[in-house]
Amino acid sequence: MLRGAAAKAHHNGEAMYKEITIQRLSAGSLFKLSAIGLFVTIVPFSVLMGFGALFGASTINWDQQAITGTAGLIASPFIGALTALILTMILGCSMAFGVWLFSLCRPLTLLVKGLDAGGSRQSGCKCCNGMNPLTPGHGARHTQAAEVSSEPESN
User: Fold this and answer.
1) How far apart are CA 40 and CA 22, in angstroms?
2) 26: closest CA among 87, 84, 108, 131?
3) Residue 64 has pLDDT above 70, yes or no
4) Nearest-angstrom CA–CA distance, 113 and 142
């Protein structure tokens, strides 16, 4: 049974997310999820702070010394990557231990969005050549199609 927002996210009677129940999640999967989330957010933020350092702001620090100018901009992605790596190790270990403890008590229920047989994301409307159901005007296409098919044919 789907709950919450996933239960409401239906299009043409099909659920966008599927609920699965698992006994355990591998530590590698947890580390991968942590790394993706942290690297995709921290490194760009660090580069943004590097642009601040380029213009003289003390936004990039190493060994309690501010790095400004082009050196700050060049150092920023490396500092961001190092920060994300350290946090991935800490959070990954913590999450792996926590999920392992949770799995001793009961199974874990997850909402997932799968891939179709061709390996592409299952998104889009089957009757509209894969058009995203959230695209403005998508519902109007179904309404227009229904109006056209319900009109009597004239000879």
Assistant:
1) 27
2) 108
3) yes
4) 24
How many residues are there in the chain? 155
Residue 149: predicted pLDDT: 47
For the chain, how many structural domains are there in total? Answer: 2
Is pTM beyond 0.70? Reply is no
Query: Is residue 36 included in any domain, yes or no?
Result: yes
Q: Which of 89, 70, 86, 79 is nearest to 46 (CA)?
A: 79
Same domain flag for 62 and 135: no
> What amino acid is encoded at 142 in this protein?
H
Q: pLDDT value at position 113? A: 87
- Distance CA(27)–CA(111), nearest Å, equals 19
Over residues 147-153, the mean pLDDT reads: 49
Asked if the structure places residue 140 within a domain, the reply is: yes
pLDDT of residue 16: 81
7 lies in some domain: no
Does residue 75 lie within any of the structural domains? yes
Residue 73 has pLDDT above 70, yes or no: yes
Burial of residue 140 (CB within 10 Å: 0-12, 13-18, 19+) is exposed
| Beta partners for residue 18, in sequence order | 112
